[in-house]
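Can you give me the bound-state structure? Components:
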Amino acid sequence: MHSAPPATLTSAPAAPPLDTVLARATAAAERIRTSSPADRARLLTVLADALDAAAGRLIPVAHRETHLPEARLTGELARTTFQCRLFADRLATGALDDVRIDHADPDWPMGARPDIRRTTVPLGPVLVFAAGNFPFAFGVLGGDTVSALAAGCSVVVKAHPGHPALSRLTASVAAAALADAGAAPDLLQLIEGERDGADAVRDHRIKAVGFTGSTRGGHQLFQLAAGRPDPIPFYGELGSTNPVVVTPAGWAERGADIADGFAASFTLGSGQFCTQPGVVFVPDVDAFLAAMPPLVAGPMLDARTATGYATALDDLAAQDGVRVAARTPGGDGLPDVAVLRTTTEAVRTTPSLISTEVFGPASLLVEYGTLDEVEEVLGDFEGTLTGTVQGGHALDEDGLRMLDALTRHAGRVIWNEWPTGVTVSDAQQHGGPWPASTAPTTTSVGTAAVHRFRRPVAFQNVPERGLPPAVRDRR
Amino acid sequence: MHSAPPATLTSAPAAPPLDTVLARATAAAERIRTSSPADRARLLTVLADALDAAAGRLIPVAHRETHLPEARLTGELARTTFQCRLFADRLATGALDDVRIDHADPDWPMGARPDIRRTTVPLGPVLVFAAGNFPFAFGVLGGDTVSALAAGCSVVVKAHPGHPALSRLTASVAAAALADAGAAPDLLQLIEGERDGADAVRDHRIKAVGFTGSTRGGHQLFQLAAGRPDPIPFYGELGSTNPVVVTPAGWAERGADIADGFAASFTLGSGQFCTQPGVVFVPDVDAFLAAMPPLVAGPMLDARTATGYATALDDLAAQDGVRVAARTPGGDGLPDVAVLRTTTEAVRTTPSLISTEVFGPASLLVEYGTLDEVEEVLGDFEGTLTGTVQGGHALDEDGLRMLDALTRHAGRVIWNEWPTGVTVSDAQQHGGPWPASTAPTTTSVGTAAVHRFRRPVAFQNVPERGLPPAVRDRR
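Here's the bound-state model for the whole set.
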C-alpha cells in the first residue's frame, strides 16, 4: 500500500497535546485489557453501525479530499464496516482465541509436565499510521485499527495528511459511538502531523505500530521503533510491484482476456492500489499492446500524488533498456496512463527495474524469450504483496513452475485472476518479504491480523478462577 | 536466557569462509524448501538418534567446557533429543500446518470472494546464536535450530565461545547423520567468532535470526538486523528477572515450603538459568531468611561468567537501599551464594533494582508492607519471561490480583510452582515484552516456535495440483 509523502499539518486547535493523548491511551488500554471478546465484538458492531449511519456525511468529505468517485467510496465504506462486523463475528464465536492446553502429565518423556494453558493478551496502546489511498479501509477505522481494537488494545491513529477533515469526522463519529456504548472514548484517538507521529513511535507508552504507506516513510518509522531503548513490533506494509507472468499457453489461449484484465487492473483506482500489477512478463510485447483496449484513468488523490507519479514514471522511462510503449495523455487534471516496455535482458542488467514501484496508472511490460529467463530475473527479486500467473485454461508445467517461483517472493499467489481487489476473509494474507512488509510472518488484512497485537502467555498450575476464560475447563 | 559475553574465537583452520557457508546455506534452503513435513520429521528423528548415540562422546566434552555436572548434562541432552522428536511428531501429524481455507463465495457481503487457501512457507536460511548456559538445549541442535529445521529452513549456527569443542563435535555428529539420511549436510552449518556472527546478521542471504543471550549483546545484533537495507525478523531472548510475589496467605500457610523452594530454584544450575527467580517480594524479609535452608551452588560455566557474576552482584549490593542479607562464600573455584534485600520504598525510588539481572546464584528479596506497594512498583516494570505467585493453599483475592499484575509483564505466569525447569510442550511460552524478548508475539520454546520461521502465503484460485499439499481438498 503506497501513499503520498506526508506533510506537516497543523492540528485542530482543540486537539490535546501528544502527551495527554498517550496518557489517555494508556488508561484506555488498561480498561479494555480485560474486556471479553463479546464486549469487543459489541464495540466493533457499534462502530460499524455508526459509520454506516454517517455515510451521508462521510462520503462527500472523502470525495472532496481524495477525488475518488462516490461509488468507489460507498463501496469502500461498505468494505470497512463489513470488516468491523467480520472481526466482531469471529470474536463472538471464539475463532480469534489462540488456545493451547497441555494438561499435567507425570509421564511426559522429558520429565513430569505441569498443567500449562496458553492464550494471548493485548500488547497495549497501538499506534496506527493511516494510508492515503484508502481513506476508509486503511483510514481511521481501517484494518489496522479494527484488528487492534479486536485484539483488546487502545489505538492512536496518525491521520493521513491527504484527508484531514475526513479523519477528524471519522474519529468524532467513532468517539460518539463509543460514548453511547458506554465505552471509553479514548479507546480511539487521532493525532496529526509528522512530528507527533514520529514522537509517538518513540514513546514508551506505545507498544506496537501499524503502518501503511511508502517504503521510504515506513522504513524511517521502522528504524525509530527499532532504535527505542525498548524496541516494539512494527507492522509496516510498504512497497510492492506485484509481478504477473503471462505464460505461453496463457497468451495463446486467453490472450485477449488477459490484455483486457490487465488494462482494467492496473488502471483501477488510477493505479493507486498497493496490489496494482506493476510488472508483467509477456512473450510478445507488440502483440500484447495490440490486444489492449483504450486506457483511461480517473483523477489522482491529490496534486502531490500526481506530481510524484509523473516523476516516478519519467524516472523509470529514462532507465536504460526501458521505453514508453503507450501513453494516453490525461489532460484536464487527469493523469497520463502509461505502459512501458523492457526485456528480461535489461532486467538482468538492472534488477531494480522490476522492484521499482510507480504509484499511479502505469505498468511495465517485460518481454521474455523463455520462462527460464523469467525464473532467473525473479531469483534476485525482493518481496511483493502478490504474484500472479496468467496461464491457459488448464494448469500446465509452465504454470506450476511460475506459481512456485512467485511463492518464494509473494504473500499472495494468484492463478488467472488479478491482484487488485483484496477480499477480507479468514484466509486472506496481505504482506510478504521486505519491502512488502516489515513483518513477513504477519498479515495486515484478514482476521489473522488480530494476532499482531496480542502476545502469548502460558499459565502454569493456575487454578480455574485465576485463568482467562478462554483456557478454563468450563468456559 | 543469559550467557557470558562472547569473545573472539579463531575458527578451526578447515572451516570454510563465511561467504561459502552462506552460499551453501542458500542452496540447502532451496532444497529443503519444498520438502514435506514427513521428510523433515524423518530428518529430526535421525538427528535425535545420532545425538543420543553420541552421548558418550558429547557429555565429557560438555562437562570439560562448561563445568556442568554430568547428570545435568545427561538430562539436558535427553531434553534436547526429546525436543527433536516432539517437533518430528507434530510435523508428522500435521499439527504444525497452519491452514485457513475460504472457499469461493459469490455471496460474501463485501463482494464475491475467490477461493483463498492460506498456509505457510519457510523464510529461508536462519542464523542461530547459541547460548552459553544450555550447551545442548540452546546449543547447536537446540530449540532455535530444531524449530528452524522443522520449519523447512537451513540453519547457520554461530557457536557460543564458551564451548567451541562441543559445538564442533555436535555439528559433525549432525552432519554425518544428515549425510547418512541422504539429506544435504549443509542444512546445518557452524560458524565461530563475533565478527562472522555480526557479518552473517547483515548478509542479505540470512532471512531470520534466533538469539539467546545477554540483553546487551542481543540488543546490538537486533540493531544490526533492523539496520539492514532489507530488515529481517530477529527473535532474541534476552534478559529477565522473573519476579515472584509471596502473598500474605502464602507466607502464613506455606512459608517453610516457599523458602525451601526458592533456595532450590535460585541456586539451580548455579543460578545460570534464564528463568531464575531474581526478585522475590515477601512480607517479612527477616522471617523469610530465617526459614531458608543452607545455600550451596556448583561451579560457574567459566571464569568470565564467574567474574561477570561477582561484578554484577557487587554493583547491585552497592545500590542505595540494597543490603546483602546472606552470603555463603563459595571458595575453591565456587561462587558465593547471595541473598540481597531491599524494600518496595527503595524500588519506588530506583525502579531498575527489580529489572537488573544478576546472572548467577543471587536473588533480591523485596520487603513489602501491602500488596498495593507491590502492584505499584510492578507498574513501571519491564518485560520478563516468567512471573510467579506463591500463595496459600487456595487462590484468594490477593493471589488473583498478583496473577493479573504479573500477566501484564510476563510470558509465563505461575501459581505455587517455580519458574526454573521449562518444559517443552505445545502450550509452552518462552518470551515476553522487552527485554525478555525482541519479538513478544512469539515463543522460543515449545512447538509454536516453528511459526517464527515460516511466513503465510494465500493461494487464490489456484488449481488443486498447484496448491501445497496442506491446503488441497485431497491431502
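A couple of observations. Chain B has 14 helices and 15 strands. Chain B has two domains: 18-238+437-471, 244-415.
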